[in-house]
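User: Can you predict the 3D structure for this chain?
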Amino acid sequence: MKEILKGLVFYFINHILNKIPSRTIRMRFYYYLSNGRISLEASIGLGVRILDIRNITVGKNSNINFDSILDGRGAPIIIGDNVDIAPQVNIWSLEHHPESESHELRKNGVVIGDYTWIANRVTILPGTNIGKNHVVGAGGVMKGHYSENSISMGNKAKIKKLKNVLRKKNLRRLRVFR
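Assistant: Here is the predicted structure, written as structure tokens:
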């Protein structure tokens, strides 16, 4: 029964609430569904997907633009005050271990400091801590600790090491309402 209720809340937030054109109505629902951890003075745009609202905190005057993803399934995501998050930013707190044969999960929180600006299409991975007054350039992938009062930009993938575990197990089916 608990899984069905979680699925219904997920469905309501991501398929009904995030499409309501009134920001005031959306923010009141986000405030109540998060037990006050999402500020009424914040702004969450249309189409923002929230994957477990219980682990999301959004401070005052913070703005999360359309089509972003906040993945609170793994660990808390804490977004400070006066943070500007551009469209299509993905913030993850849950990932799969790349060398696990069973597709094992890893959880780790994300903290974004006050007065931070995150540009378009940035991906923030689990375990990331971005200091206050930081600017993140468009398209970057963030993982680790980033200091206050600085600018991060750029992204170039390169091979770090060879994978030595071959996955042989089948993936599990997705949950109901997903």
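The helical segments are 2-15, 23-33. The chain has two helices and 18 strands.
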